[in-house]
Amino acid sequence: MTRPLHVLIVDDSPEDTATYLRYLRGWPEWHVTLSQASLGEDAADMLRGTTPDLILLDYQLPDMTGIEFLNEFRPDCAVIVLTGVGDEEIAVQAMRAGAQDYLVKGRLTPDALRRAAQAALNTHRLSRALEEARTQQAALLSSITDGVLLVDAHLTVQSVNPAAQQLLGADDSLLGASLLTLDWLTGTPLPDLLRGAGGGSAQLLTPQGRWLHARVFPAEQGQTVYLYDDTPRREIEARDHAHARQLTDLYALAATLNAARTRVDVQRIARDAAPALLGSEAHLLLPGEAPPPATAGDPDWQTTPLTHDGDPLGKLLRGPAGDQNPLAPTFTQLLHTALVRAALLERVQRDRDTLDDRVQARTAALERSNRDLEQFAHVASHDLKEPLRTIASFTQLLQGRYGAQLDDRGRRYMGIIVDGAQRMSTLIEDVLAISRLHARPTPPTRTDLNVLLRDVLTQLQALLDETGGQVEAGPLPTLTLNPTQFTQLFLNLIGNALKFHRPGVPPRVHLSATKAGDTWHFTLRDNGIGVPAEYAERVFVIFQRLHTRDQYAGNGIGLALCRRIVEARGGRIWLNPDTDPGTELHFTLPEVVPAIDPDMPSVRQPVSDLAPPRPDA
């Protein structure tokens, strides 16, 4: 496949021109088109219209030499200079003027001309590409806002763009000179970084106070240095650090003010924090306080009243420039919130003190009333038992002496009198037990509930034998409690489980304890008659019974007594009415003894997470 080739022959010799034409037409790889000129001026006119691919230029023209032609018109194509004599000086001049080759006419052959043409065309194409690359590189370097320079092993500047000159404070004289001609670079890390030839980065401070970031990369002919102005980033970073520090101080102020309990505390905190946050002094004046003498009448001090619901809380005095600080509104709002909180806390404390006084007075009155009631119950119970004993004794005496003279109705009436007196005596004993529960408290001691349970079962042995019942228990904890009261608790709970059994079914009772956090959860299960759901709370009310005395004995006091014992220890007791058959009773006890006065009536404690909500809660 042939390629087009436009050749311009500039020669005043017809014979030489004919020779060139003959040689050129014998090139099979090119499709040659020819132009001819015998003078340099004619050739220049042709170049103004169309630029050929190759010029065969005679060194000696009638109007000029080939060297003069090249220097004046500088054709943008490949040029081969032809001369009749082999003069190396002429060859050097031709090459310097832009020719790609130099041939002697007397030694010219078709192959020599073809090889010279090919070499000239290739050389011109490469030179043109190199020149375009250099032009593009120069344009690129000129357009880059960052500085770029190339230095050799001796730190001599090989190339530098305008941005680098501006950043370094240099002029065109830096090109070709040592980089260290800039004296201020001597004290920076850049020279040592360049001498190390390993690349890296460095921060440079210019005499004008600007920060430059330099990055060094190894290159084929030395090292390339990229520079950019790092001052704006550093300024933004410094501002960000300052803002972050101010925000940190602001958060710290908010936390400190949140812990303030009085307005005097808020006043002190505001005075200490103002210089760091506002850049000036600040004074918080409480109602009735006079401003410091240095601020009185000074127009540069700004005053901001602080109020709440129309009531004055104080005044904030900010020093010069403090009002222009962007944190001033937030600072003022934090102080206002803290003052409102402190004022409310002071009011709450005053109300609490007043309430404490009233509670103490009411508590003392209740203690006196409880002591009087307990004493009255004790005395009344003893006084009531005496006539009951008299009634029971004389009734039994009448029954023994005159029973045979009475008919069946009379004897039945006598039995009713005796039974009523005995039940009244039992009821009085139960009332005394309730009154004694807190009247003469026993100090709590570390008690192993396993041992306590064995003692209880010993006391219930007769009932166990009578009912054929069995009591099983898992491991129980050792707690600090009143052993007498908890003996009563277990006697009542287990006694009820044994007493309220189903006819013909021996009672089975199981007691277990599990720990959840700081609370012990006890569960007592039985297979007895159970408790209907609607009565699950009523059974804990004193004197409340679900059955007649003919069915089951008792006065309805046992579970009420159990509730008082458990709640006095900080616990909770309840029934699970969904158990079928039988009853499932739960109570909880905290690991640590609650701070409850044993002489005071029991106070219900917060319910454990294991306990369901009480119906009367």
Quick tags:
Beta-Lactamase; alpha/beta; Rossmann fold; 4 domains; five-stranded antiparallel sheet; five-stranded parallel sheet
Could you characterize what this model shows?
The chain is α/β, with parallel strands linked by helices. It has four domains: 3-139, Rossmann fold, CATH 3.40.50; 144-229, 2-Layer Sandwich (Beta-Lactamase), CATH 3.30.450; 242-394, 2-Layer Sandwich (Beta-Lactamase), CATH 3.30.450; 441-590, 2-Layer Sandwich (Heat Shock Protein 90), CATH 3.30.565. It contains 15 helices and 20 strands. It has a five-stranded parallel sheet, sandwiched between helices. Helix 10 (328-402) packs antiparallel against helix 11 and helix 12 (449-459) packs across helix 14 (483-499). It starts with a strand and ends in a 27-residue tail after the last strand. The model is unreliable at 547-555 and 596-617 (pLDDT under 50).
